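Escalated from tier 1: N-oxalylglycine holo job.
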Amino acid sequence: MSQSVSSFETTSDSPTMDSSVKYTKIRVEPTSGCIGAEVSGVDLAKIDDETFEEIHRAWLEHQVLFFRDQKITPSEQEGFARHFGELDTYPFIPSLPDHPHVIPIVKERDTKLNFGGGWHSDMSYQEKPSMATILYALEVPPHGGDTLFASMTAAYDALSPGMQTMLGNLNAVFTAAKVHSSEGLYSKVDHPMGKKKDEAKEQARFIHPVVRTHPETGRKALYMDAPHVERLENMRLHESQPLMDFISNHATSPQFTTRFRWQPGSLAVWDNRCVQHYALNDYPGQRREMNRITIKGDVPY
Ligand code: OGA
Ligand code: MN
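Tier 2 regenerated the structure:
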């Protein structure tokens, strides 16, 4: 009898989904066994506080929510985003004119590299990484260009107590330089990312724990995204790398993920404190255009 090395025991004592949670304003359909839900019955251009309370509850539970067939302007996307908190600014891509918090994420037909094409958590390289990201699809290829999401709480829960304790004692050195500096990934190719530079933000380093505690749910989550982590604190690179590889491979195992197929008018909102995501680059010759807003977060602990 052979056992796959990539299989995990189901932790039945710590379910991710709580089926007793009830909603009266919205419908919530989970998209996988451990992360993601599609929400229907709501127009995000105009939501009242009671509806937002339900959306927020569903969001904490499912970590990434998907909405379809939304018709919203950048101002309306900002209005929805403000329910979550204060809007963040992004230092490496110019914003929409008149909307300093709305960043166009565009892949043109002849662009080779896509934005976010590796597992990551948004702006984890800041002292206060973005809490949430709200991505709204304007134009998408007829197929391809999906986004994958992985639950970092499910990944943490699936580790053995010994590994949880060991990783719980580690910190990592976060930096934007690996992708955004003049030596970084995005500078080596023609990409809109290369058009705006913030040297100070490129070069800054911040230390965050490899296991962070979600400030609202109290759940522990792995917090180590390879594109934004240089090495582990107090370790040399060659000592850090095998541990970082283990964490990345484990954290993004298929059973911790869900996958979203976009349509024009689709909107996703994910919790960067406990989710990593990955934009697939499988639509050569096609155009894709999204508007993105990030919400300010806290110092991870
Ligand atoms: C992002 C990102 C994913 C996508 O906006 O932060 O990673 O599918 N985008 O465009
Ligand atoms: Mn991203």
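Residues 161 and 167 are 10 Å apart (CA to CA).
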